[in-house]
Structures are given as C-alpha cells and as structure tokens.
Design goal:
Shape: elongated
Oligomer: single chain
Distance between the termini: 37 Å
Strand content: 35-45%
Structural class: alpha+beta
Strand order of the largest sheet: 2-1-3
C-alpha cells in the first residue's frame, strides 16, 4: 500500500520543482536610448533563475531588440 501512495507524491514533488525552476521573475530596471537621449524605468518579466546575475544578460538581450541599453537592474522578484 505504501508503494502506491509514495509514487504520486514523488511525481507531484518533481512537477512542482520543475515549475519553480521555470518561474517568471519581475525585473525592475533602468535603461536608455540614444539620439535623442531617452531614459526608461520599467518592470519586465524574465524566465529562469531569479538572481540579478542570471536575469541581467537575458534582460539586456531583450531590451537590445527594442533599441534600448540596460543601465541597471534595480530589483528581482519571483512571481
């Protein structure tokens, strides 16, 4: 009987762990655009690890596509 109960518990635990690893992060940042100079403050969603070191390159790439340069990541919060 225990074996039947343990298997669903393990599956649920693994699924919840996978969801946490792919959780989105809210990233508060400052960016700029040149010619003419425009400064931006905004919040973006970035997936993956929610540390400043992990989200900085992802956010910079995302902003570059919009013609912006990332100046500083102010905060990162898990969602």
């Amino acid at each position: 009987m225990r074996r039947v109960l343990i298997t669903p518990v393990i599956v649920v635990t693994l699924l919840l762990g996978a969801q946490a690893a792919n959780a989105a992060c809210s990233v508060e940042y400052k960016a700029k655009r040149d010619n003419p100079l425009e400064l931006f403050y905004d919040v973006a969603q970035v997936g993956g690890d929610c540390s400043i070191a992990a989200v900085t390159p992802k956010l910079a790439k995302k902003l570059k596509k919009k013609g912006l340069t990332l100046l500083k990541v102010l905060s990162v919060k898990k969602q």
